[in-house]
């Protein structure tokens, strides 16, 4: 299977660099380039790529809004946010908009390719502990939740609720298995049902849900 990638970045040199790396891979193809968010949305809808490498800061429609629209209108397309991380306070917003992870703009080529392959098969590219650190870093940008319980939580069994809390706390599947005395395969099955019942895309979205529903607090 060839992984089809759309590159969205307002810096022409970065687009060229990403394109060069992708085209050197036998299982990847750069199918288009966009220099702003509006063009990224249009090309994603037209080309239906598997992955969009999405810069956050672009003129006009930014990468966050572009991510939100691409995820909404192209269900088969996943988005990887491109960010400077330490300087980019919008990284959390991009993940909340539906991105399947984030990459630093200075990511090494082999890490970029690994990330793309993981996301192409439905995984997130941020490890649980990095996800936790990211959310803690952007804690001020997480909106305060209300006092009402999110009704979607009632869809979960007691065990699924326990697993979701552990996911939100930044534990890996193996760590959750050890904490709850479960087989790792069982944890993976629980997580799959949690994502389905809560209508979430991936583990990152589950962590965000856990924070916003106040199951855990980034302290």
What key phrases describe this protein's structure?
219 residues; alpha/beta; globular
Task: Provide an overview of this structure.
Strands 2-1-3-4-5 form a five-stranded parallel β-sheet, with helices on both faces. Helix content is 48%, strand content 12%. By secondary structure, the protein is an alpha/beta fold. The longest helix has 15 residues, at 184-198. The N and C termini lie far apart (43 Å). Helix 3 (63-73) links the parallel strand 3 (51-55) and strand 4.
List the helices and strands and how they pair.
Layout: E1 3-8, H1 12-23, E2 28-34, H2 37-47, E3 51-55, H3 63-73, E4 78-83, H4 91-96, E5 102-104, H5 109-120, H6 128-137, H7 158-168, H8 173-180, H9 184-198, H10 203-212
Parallel strand pairs: 1-2, 1-3, 3-4, 4-5
Helix pairs in contact: 2-3, 6-10, 7-9, 7-10, 8-9
